[in-house]
Amino acid sequence: MKIDALAGEKWEKVTFKRETKAKNYYISNFGRAKSIDKTTKEERLMKTHPDHRGFFRASIKVVGNLNQALYVHKEVAKHFVTPPSDEHIYVIHKDLNRKNNHHSNIIWVNEIDWKLYIKERAKKFGFKKSTKGGYYKLTAAQVAIIKKQLLNGKTRRKMIAKRFGVSTTQLKRIERGENWAHVEPAK
């Protein structure tokens, strides 16, 4: 079976530090990935999934029974977008949408532009910067409610965690006072 190319689509072979097991992998300028079996020459369109930061990737089997990630945006940039200079080492999405890996949406930037991009993305998606590094997932008011519910003992930890979008481990840390110790339970 052969994958039909879309109008204007080009494919380039992706290389890895280690040799791949049974397939060769290709990336298109439209942000699609495919594999071709080394023996049967059968082509398959690969499923890509977002990682914890939203970048789409596929898992590749390499020699030594190891997995290696193929990041779509990075491979599109390497094969289809020319960096303006040696200083341009970061890859970003022009429209801030990490799902859009078309070559026309991918650009190489320098460190200064990359930091501006990070700030612009944080502003667009409402990320809040903490003073201690990282981002807070909870507000002090939410923690006060969580502490009240934990003291009450009527609601299961799993339900509280789901409601506030945190793990049960995080709830245990709040309960023990490891995290958010300065916040009092809600009245």
**Strand tally, please?**
9
- In one word, what is the shape? elongated
Poorly predicted regions are: none
Estimate percent helicity: 25-40%
Q: Order of helices and strands, N to C?
A: EEEEEEEHEEHHHH
From the structure provided, what is the oligomeric state, counting identical versus distinct chains? single chain
| Largest sheet features | 4 strands, antiparallel
* Rg measurement, Å: 22 Å
Backbone structural class? alpha+beta
Number of helices: 5
Numbering strands along the chain, what is their spatial order in the largest sheet? Answer: 1-2-3-4
Distance between the termini: 65 Å
Strand content: 15-25%
CATH topology of the largest domain: Homing Intron 3 (I-Ppo) Encoded Endonuclease, Chain A
CATH class of the largest domain: Alpha Beta
User: How many discrete domains?
Assistant: 2
The average pLDDT is 90
Instruction: Quickly give the CATH architecture of the largest domain.
Output: Alpha-Beta Complex
